[in-house]
Amino acid sequence: MERRDFFKKAAVTAGAAALGSSTLEAGITHQPIDNRKPMDVAFPEKRPLIVYSDRPPLLETPRDVFTSALTPNDQFFVRWHMPDIPTFIDPDKFTISVNGLVNKELQISLNDLKTKYEQVDVTAVLQCGGNSRSAFTPTAGGIQWGNGAMGCARWRGVRLKDILDKAGLKKEAEWIGFNGSEKAAYYETPNFIRELKLDELDDHVILAYEMNGEDLPYLNGYPLRLIIPGSYSDSWVKMLSNITVTNEYKKLFFMDIAYRVPDNATEGETPEKKFPKTKPITKMNVKSIIGYPVDGATLSHKSEVVVRGVAWDDGHGIEKVMVSIDNGKTWGEALLDSGRLGRYAYRAFRFHFKPKGYGQLKIMAKAMNKIGKEQPLAKDIPWNHGGYKYNGIDEVTVEVV
Protein backbone atom coordinates (compact mmCIF):
# COMPACT_ATOMS: atom_id res chain seq x y z
CA MET A 1 0.00 0.00 0.00
CA GLU A 2 1.21 3.49 -0.88
CA ARG A 3 1.56 5.63 2.25
CA ARG A 4 1.52 8.82 0.20
CA ASP A 5 -2.16 8.49 -0.47
CA PHE A 6 -3.24 6.39 2.48
CA PHE A 7 -6.80 7.36 3.12
CA LYS A 8 -7.88 7.24 -0.52
CA LYS A 9 -7.28 3.51 -0.21
CA ALA A 10 -8.92 3.28 3.21
CA ALA A 11 -12.61 2.99 2.36
CA VAL A 12 -13.78 1.65 5.69
CA THR A 13 -17.26 1.73 7.14
CA ALA A 14 -17.30 1.69 10.92
CA GLY A 15 -19.66 2.74 13.65
CA ALA A 16 -19.13 3.53 17.27
CA ALA A 17 -19.45 0.50 19.53
CA ALA A 18 -22.48 0.29 21.75
CA LEU A 19 -21.62 1.22 25.31
CA GLY A 20 -24.28 -0.87 26.95
CA SER A 21 -25.96 -0.06 30.24
CA SER A 22 -25.24 -0.77 33.86
CA THR A 23 -27.24 -1.09 37.07
CA LEU A 24 -24.18 -0.71 39.28
CA GLU A 25 -24.10 1.94 41.99
CA ALA A 26 -22.72 5.39 41.25
CA GLY A 27 -19.10 6.23 41.89
CA ILE A 28 -17.63 2.73 41.79
CA THR A 29 -15.15 0.78 39.68
CA HIS A 30 -15.34 -2.78 38.39
CA GLN A 31 -13.85 -4.93 35.64
CA PRO A 32 -13.81 -3.17 32.24
CA ILE A 33 -16.19 -4.24 29.47
CA ASP A 34 -14.63 -7.29 27.87
CA ASN A 35 -17.17 -8.66 25.38
CA ARG A 36 -16.61 -6.50 22.31
CA LYS A 37 -15.56 -8.25 19.12
CA PRO A 38 -13.30 -7.07 16.28
CA MET A 39 -14.98 -5.83 13.12
CA ASP A 40 -14.96 -8.06 10.06
CA VAL A 41 -13.49 -5.21 7.99
CA ALA A 42 -9.86 -4.27 8.64
CA PHE A 43 -8.27 -0.84 8.31
CA PRO A 44 -5.20 -0.65 6.04
CA GLU A 45 -2.05 -2.14 7.59
CA LYS A 46 -4.21 -3.64 10.35
CA ARG A 47 -5.93 -6.91 11.09
CA PRO A 48 -9.56 -6.65 12.25
CA LEU A 49 -9.64 -4.73 15.54
CA ILE A 50 -12.33 -3.49 17.92
CA VAL A 51 -13.64 -0.25 16.38
CA TYR A 52 -15.09 2.76 18.22
CA SER A 53 -14.88 5.28 15.37
CA ASP A 54 -13.49 5.61 11.86
CA ARG A 55 -13.15 9.42 11.94
CA PRO A 56 -10.97 9.87 13.84
CA PRO A 57 -9.76 6.26 13.83
CA LEU A 58 -10.18 4.66 17.27
CA LEU A 59 -9.18 0.99 17.30
CA GLU A 60 -8.65 -1.35 20.26
CA THR A 61 -6.46 -4.45 20.43
CA PRO A 62 -8.28 -7.68 21.44
CA ARG A 63 -7.28 -9.32 24.72
CA ASP A 64 -5.85 -12.46 23.14
CA VAL A 65 -2.98 -10.46 21.58
CA PHE A 66 -1.42 -9.79 24.99
CA THR A 67 0.51 -13.03 25.43
CA SER A 68 3.96 -11.86 24.30
CA ALA A 69 6.22 -8.92 25.08
CA LEU A 70 5.93 -7.24 21.65
CA THR A 71 2.63 -6.27 20.04
CA PRO A 72 2.49 -6.84 16.26
CA ASN A 73 2.16 -3.61 14.27
CA ASP A 74 -0.99 -4.81 12.53
CA GLN A 75 -2.70 -5.47 15.89
CA PHE A 76 -1.50 -2.32 17.64
CA PHE A 77 -4.24 -0.03 18.97
CA VAL A 78 -4.97 3.35 17.32
CA ARG A 79 -6.00 6.61 18.99
CA TRP A 80 -6.39 9.95 17.19
CA HIS A 81 -7.98 13.10 18.61
CA MET A 82 -8.75 15.09 15.45
CA PRO A 83 -10.69 13.85 12.41
CA ASP A 84 -8.65 15.71 9.77
CA ILE A 85 -5.57 13.54 9.18
CA PRO A 86 -3.36 14.23 6.13
CA THR A 87 -4.13 11.95 3.19
CA PHE A 88 -0.85 12.61 1.42
CA ILE A 89 2.63 12.49 2.96
CA ASP A 90 5.68 12.43 0.71
CA PRO A 91 8.55 10.94 2.76
CA ASP A 92 11.09 12.54 0.41
CA LYS A 93 9.70 16.03 1.11
CA PHE A 94 8.69 15.64 4.75
CA THR A 95 10.54 17.80 7.29
CA ILE A 96 10.20 18.55 10.97
CA SER A 97 10.77 22.13 12.15
CA VAL A 98 12.74 23.04 15.28
CA ASN A 99 12.30 26.67 16.30
CA GLY A 100 11.77 29.11 19.15
CA LEU A 101 14.51 29.75 21.69
CA VAL A 102 17.26 28.04 19.72
CA ASN A 103 20.50 29.37 18.27
CA LYS A 104 19.79 27.80 14.90
CA GLU A 105 16.36 26.91 13.52
CA LEU A 106 16.29 23.52 11.82
CA GLN A 107 14.33 21.85 9.04
CA ILE A 108 15.15 18.15 9.36
CA SER A 109 14.23 15.60 6.71
CA LEU A 110 13.66 11.88 7.30
CA ASN A 111 16.92 11.18 5.49
CA ASP A 112 18.72 13.61 7.82
CA LEU A 113 17.33 11.79 10.83
CA LYS A 114 18.51 8.44 9.50
CA THR A 115 21.99 9.54 8.37
CA LYS A 116 23.15 12.55 10.40
CA TYR A 117 22.31 11.47 13.95
CA GLU A 118 23.08 8.48 16.14
CA GLN A 119 20.37 5.82 15.74
CA VAL A 120 18.88 4.42 18.96
CA ASP A 121 16.30 1.79 19.92
CA VAL A 122 13.89 1.93 22.85
CA THR A 123 11.35 -0.79 23.65
CA ALA A 124 8.42 0.72 25.51
CA VAL A 125 4.73 0.34 26.31
CA LEU A 126 2.35 2.83 24.70
CA GLN A 127 -0.87 3.05 26.73
CA CYS A 128 -3.77 5.48 26.57
CA GLY A 129 -4.43 7.18 29.89
CA GLY A 130 -8.08 6.19 29.47
CA ASN A 131 -7.36 2.51 28.86
CA SER A 132 -10.05 0.42 30.64
CA ARG A 133 -12.25 3.52 31.11
CA SER A 134 -15.37 1.33 30.86
CA ALA A 135 -14.53 0.15 34.41
CA PHE A 136 -15.91 3.41 35.86
CA THR A 137 -19.59 3.84 36.86
CA PRO A 138 -21.19 6.28 36.33
CA THR A 139 -19.68 6.56 32.89
CA ALA A 140 -16.59 8.76 32.78
CA GLY A 141 -16.27 11.06 29.78
CA GLY A 142 -14.28 9.75 26.82
CA ILE A 143 -13.86 6.58 24.79
CA GLN A 144 -15.19 3.59 26.72
CA TRP A 145 -12.12 1.45 26.15
CA GLY A 146 -11.91 -2.13 27.33
CA ASN A 147 -8.46 -3.50 28.17
CA GLY A 148 -6.73 -3.06 24.82
CA ALA A 149 -5.86 0.63 24.35
CA MET A 150 -2.18 -0.24 24.66
CA GLY A 151 0.72 -2.07 23.05
CA CYS A 152 4.47 -2.56 23.31
CA ALA A 153 6.93 -2.02 20.46
CA ARG A 154 10.60 -1.57 19.69
CA TRP A 155 10.91 2.04 18.55
CA ARG A 156 13.88 3.25 16.46
CA GLY A 157 14.84 6.85 15.93
CA VAL A 158 16.95 9.71 17.24
CA ARG A 159 17.31 11.16 20.73
CA LEU A 160 15.43 14.41 21.18
CA LYS A 161 18.40 15.70 23.19
CA ASP A 162 20.68 15.24 20.17
CA ILE A 163 18.36 17.30 17.97
CA LEU A 164 18.12 20.08 20.55
CA ASP A 165 21.91 20.05 20.94
CA LYS A 166 22.20 20.51 17.18
CA ALA A 167 19.87 23.52 17.29
CA GLY A 168 21.49 24.93 20.42
CA LEU A 169 19.26 26.09 23.28
CA LYS A 170 19.25 29.66 24.48
CA LYS A 171 19.87 30.12 28.21
CA GLU A 172 16.26 31.10 28.95
CA ALA A 173 14.82 27.92 27.36
CA GLU A 174 12.63 25.87 29.74
CA TRP A 175 9.79 24.23 27.82
CA ILE A 176 9.37 22.29 24.56
CA GLY A 177 6.08 22.25 22.66
CA PHE A 178 5.18 19.50 20.19
CA ASN A 179 2.44 19.31 17.63
CA GLY A 180 1.61 17.04 14.74
CA SER A 181 -0.26 17.19 11.48
CA GLU A 182 -3.79 16.22 12.59
CA LYS A 183 -6.33 19.04 12.43
CA ALA A 184 -9.74 19.71 13.90
CA ALA A 185 -12.85 19.73 11.71
CA TYR A 186 -14.07 22.90 13.40
CA TYR A 187 -11.78 25.94 13.38
CA GLU A 188 -12.35 26.82 17.05
CA THR A 189 -11.31 23.38 18.29
CA PRO A 190 -7.86 23.64 19.93
CA ASN A 191 -4.91 21.97 18.25
CA PHE A 192 -3.43 18.88 19.86
CA ILE A 193 -0.24 20.31 21.36
CA ARG A 194 1.77 18.84 24.23
CA GLU A 195 4.50 20.47 26.30
CA LEU A 196 7.49 18.95 28.08
CA LYS A 197 9.78 20.63 30.60
CA LEU A 198 13.42 20.48 29.59
CA ASP A 199 14.46 18.82 32.84
CA GLU A 200 12.12 15.90 32.04
CA LEU A 201 14.30 14.87 29.11
CA ASP A 202 16.54 11.82 29.22
CA ASP A 203 18.23 9.61 26.64
CA HIS A 204 15.11 7.45 26.25
CA VAL A 205 12.95 10.27 24.81
CA ILE A 206 13.26 9.87 21.05
CA LEU A 207 11.72 10.82 17.72
CA ALA A 208 10.86 7.47 16.14
CA TYR A 209 10.36 6.60 12.48
CA GLU A 210 10.36 2.79 12.92
CA MET A 211 8.20 0.43 14.94
CA ASN A 212 9.20 -3.21 15.36
CA GLY A 213 11.69 -2.98 12.51
CA GLU A 214 9.32 -1.39 9.98
CA ASP A 215 8.27 2.13 9.05
CA LEU A 216 5.68 3.44 11.47
CA PRO A 217 2.21 2.33 10.35
CA TYR A 218 0.26 5.27 8.99
CA LEU A 219 -2.38 4.97 11.68
CA ASN A 220 0.29 4.92 14.40
CA GLY A 221 1.81 8.23 13.40
CA TYR A 222 3.80 7.86 10.16
CA PRO A 223 6.30 9.20 9.37
CA LEU A 224 7.50 10.38 12.82
CA ARG A 225 6.25 10.34 16.39
CA LEU A 226 7.47 11.35 19.83
CA ILE A 227 8.32 8.51 22.23
CA ILE A 228 8.29 9.19 26.00
CA PRO A 229 8.79 5.82 27.73
CA GLY A 230 6.99 5.31 31.03
CA SER A 231 4.43 8.05 30.32
CA TYR A 232 0.87 7.70 29.08
CA SER A 233 0.37 8.05 25.34
CA ASP A 234 -1.33 11.45 25.36
CA SER A 235 2.15 12.98 25.17
CA TRP A 236 3.43 10.70 22.37
CA VAL A 237 2.57 13.11 19.55
CA LYS A 238 1.93 11.42 16.16
CA MET A 239 2.84 12.73 12.72
CA LEU A 240 5.16 15.09 14.54
CA SER A 241 5.76 18.19 12.44
CA ASN A 242 6.96 20.95 14.77
CA ILE A 243 9.05 21.43 17.92
CA THR A 244 9.07 24.87 19.54
CA VAL A 245 11.31 25.79 22.48
CA THR A 246 9.94 28.44 24.86
CA ASN A 247 10.76 30.06 28.18
CA GLU A 248 7.36 29.63 29.75
CA TYR A 249 4.51 27.17 29.99
CA LYS A 250 1.63 27.94 27.67
CA LYS A 251 -1.87 27.04 28.82
CA LEU A 252 -3.41 24.54 26.43
CA PHE A 253 -6.64 22.53 26.38
CA PHE A 254 -4.98 19.11 26.23
CA MET A 255 -2.60 20.04 29.06
CA ASP A 256 -4.84 22.07 31.36
CA ILE A 257 -8.32 20.60 30.96
CA ALA A 258 -8.08 17.14 29.38
CA TYR A 259 -5.92 14.28 30.68
CA ARG A 260 -6.04 15.32 34.34
CA VAL A 261 -6.93 13.57 37.61
CA PRO A 262 -7.78 14.90 41.07
CA ASP A 263 -4.71 16.31 42.80
CA ASN A 264 -5.06 14.41 46.06
CA ALA A 265 -3.56 11.31 47.65
CA THR A 266 -6.02 8.85 46.06
CA GLU A 267 -6.50 10.70 42.75
CA GLY A 268 -10.21 10.10 43.37
CA GLU A 269 -13.46 12.00 43.80
CA THR A 270 -17.20 11.40 43.72
CA PRO A 271 -19.62 12.00 40.83
CA GLU A 272 -21.59 14.41 43.03
CA LYS A 273 -18.57 16.40 44.17
CA LYS A 274 -15.64 16.75 41.79
CA PHE A 275 -12.32 17.54 43.43
CA PRO A 276 -11.50 21.18 42.59
CA LYS A 277 -7.74 20.85 42.04
CA THR A 278 -6.36 18.58 39.31
CA LYS A 279 -2.97 17.50 37.95
CA PRO A 280 -1.92 16.02 34.61
CA ILE A 281 -1.58 12.29 34.20
CA THR A 282 2.05 11.48 33.55
CA LYS A 283 3.72 8.24 34.63
CA MET A 284 1.94 4.91 34.22
CA ASN A 285 1.07 2.82 37.26
CA VAL A 286 1.72 -0.90 37.69
CA LYS A 287 -0.64 -3.16 35.73
CA SER A 288 -1.04 -6.60 34.16
CA ILE A 289 -3.49 -8.33 31.85
CA ILE A 290 -4.23 -11.96 31.04
CA GLY A 291 -4.01 -12.70 27.31
CA TYR A 292 -4.87 -16.42 27.54
CA PRO A 293 -7.36 -17.77 28.32
CA VAL A 294 -9.88 -15.08 27.41
CA ASP A 295 -13.12 -14.41 29.22
CA GLY A 296 -15.74 -17.04 28.40
CA ALA A 297 -13.23 -19.63 27.12
CA THR A 298 -13.83 -23.35 27.63
CA LEU A 299 -11.13 -25.44 29.31
CA SER A 300 -10.94 -29.20 29.65
CA HIS A 301 -11.04 -30.74 33.12
CA LYS A 302 -7.57 -31.76 34.34
CA SER A 303 -5.90 -30.39 31.21
CA GLU A 304 -2.57 -28.58 31.39
CA VAL A 305 -3.49 -24.89 31.29
CA VAL A 306 -0.86 -22.21 30.77
CA VAL A 307 -2.13 -18.76 31.73
CA ARG A 308 -0.22 -16.14 29.74
CA GLY A 309 -0.17 -12.38 29.85
CA VAL A 310 1.91 -9.24 30.21
CA ALA A 311 2.79 -6.82 33.01
CA TRP A 312 4.36 -3.34 33.00
CA ASP A 313 4.80 -0.07 34.87
CA ASP A 314 6.49 3.30 34.32
CA GLY A 315 10.02 1.91 34.14
CA HIS A 316 10.82 0.98 37.73
CA GLY A 317 10.48 -2.62 36.58
CA ILE A 318 8.16 -5.54 37.31
CA GLU A 319 9.25 -7.63 40.29
CA LYS A 320 6.65 -10.41 40.10
CA VAL A 321 3.21 -11.40 38.85
CA MET A 322 0.87 -13.46 41.03
CA VAL A 323 -2.05 -15.56 39.79
CA SER A 324 -5.07 -16.87 41.70
CA ILE A 325 -7.57 -19.54 40.63
CA ASP A 326 -9.65 -19.51 43.86
CA ASN A 327 -11.13 -15.99 43.88
CA GLY A 328 -8.06 -14.46 45.45
CA LYS A 329 -7.86 -16.70 48.52
CA THR A 330 -4.41 -17.93 47.55
CA TRP A 331 -1.87 -16.72 45.00
CA GLY A 332 0.89 -18.48 43.07
CA GLU A 333 3.89 -16.79 41.48
CA ALA A 334 4.00 -16.75 37.67
CA LEU A 335 7.15 -17.24 35.59
CA LEU A 336 8.44 -13.98 34.08
CA ASP A 337 10.43 -13.61 30.88
CA SER A 338 14.06 -12.51 31.09
CA GLY A 339 13.29 -8.80 30.92
CA ARG A 340 15.90 -8.38 28.18
CA LEU A 341 13.72 -5.85 26.34
CA GLY A 342 14.31 -3.31 29.08
CA ARG A 343 12.50 -1.71 31.97
CA TYR A 344 9.94 0.16 29.84
CA ALA A 345 8.72 -2.97 28.00
CA TYR A 346 6.13 -5.58 28.83
CA ARG A 347 7.26 -8.51 30.98
CA ALA A 348 5.49 -11.58 29.61
CA PHE A 349 4.38 -14.09 32.26
CA ARG A 350 3.21 -17.73 32.38
CA PHE A 351 1.39 -19.72 35.06
CA HIS A 352 0.69 -23.47 34.86
CA PHE A 353 -2.22 -25.26 36.57
CA LYS A 354 -4.71 -28.16 36.17
CA PRO A 355 -8.39 -27.40 36.70
CA LYS A 356 -9.66 -29.78 39.39
CA GLY A 357 -13.37 -29.07 39.30
CA TYR A 358 -16.11 -28.35 36.77
CA GLY A 359 -18.08 -25.22 35.99
CA GLN A 360 -17.06 -21.60 36.16
CA LEU A 361 -13.53 -20.71 37.21
CA LYS A 362 -12.19 -17.21 37.79
CA ILE A 363 -8.51 -16.53 36.98
CA MET A 364 -6.96 -13.40 38.50
CA ALA A 365 -3.58 -11.75 37.90
CA LYS A 366 -1.81 -8.95 39.73
CA ALA A 367 1.62 -7.40 39.22
CA MET A 368 4.06 -5.86 41.70
CA ASN A 369 6.96 -3.61 40.76
CA LYS A 370 10.41 -3.10 42.24
CA ILE A 371 9.40 -0.16 44.43
CA GLY A 372 6.58 -2.09 46.11
CA LYS A 373 3.60 -0.84 44.09
CA GLU A 374 0.92 -3.48 43.55
CA GLN A 375 -2.28 -3.71 41.55
CA PRO A 376 -5.37 -3.19 43.71
CA LEU A 377 -8.71 -4.91 43.37
CA ALA A 378 -10.95 -3.11 40.89
CA LYS A 379 -13.43 -2.13 43.61
CA ASP A 380 -10.68 -0.41 45.59
CA ILE A 381 -9.78 2.07 42.82
CA PRO A 382 -11.32 5.50 43.46
CA TRP A 383 -13.62 6.86 40.75
CA ASN A 384 -12.48 9.93 38.75
CA HIS A 385 -14.45 11.96 36.22
CA GLY A 386 -11.96 11.37 33.37
CA GLY A 387 -11.79 7.61 33.80
CA TYR A 388 -8.00 7.68 33.89
CA LYS A 389 -5.28 5.36 35.20
CA TYR A 390 -7.39 2.28 35.92
CA ASN A 391 -5.12 -0.61 36.96
CA GLY A 392 -7.33 -3.11 38.77
CA ILE A 393 -6.36 -6.76 39.26
CA ASP A 394 -7.32 -8.47 36.01
CA GLU A 395 -9.94 -11.21 35.93
CA VAL A 396 -11.21 -13.66 33.34
CA THR A 397 -13.93 -16.26 33.93
CA VAL A 398 -13.76 -19.56 32.05
CA GLU A 399 -15.89 -22.70 31.89
CA VAL A 400 -14.26 -26.03 32.85
CA VAL A 401 -15.91 -29.02 31.15
Plain-language structure description:
- There is one protein chain.
- The strands form seven sheets. Strands 6-5-15-10-11 form a five-stranded mixed β-sheet. Strands 7, 9, 12, 13 and 14 form a five-stranded antiparallel β-sheet that branches.
- The chain has helices spanning 110-115, 160-167, 253-256; strands at 28-29, 50-54, 57-60, 78-79, 95-100, 106-109, 120-127, 136-137, 150-159, 175-180, 193-197, 206-211, 214-215, 225-227, 240-246, 260-262, 278-280, 287-292, 298-299, 305-312, 318-324, 332-333, 335-336, 347-353, 359-369, 394-400.
- The longest helix has 8 residues, at 160-167.
- The chain contains three helices and 26 strands.
- With 401 residues, it is mainly β.
- The protein folds into two domains: 1-283, Sulfite Oxidase, Chain A, domain 2 (Alpha-Beta Complex); 287-400, Immunoglobulin-like.
- Residues 6-25 have low confidence and may be disordered.
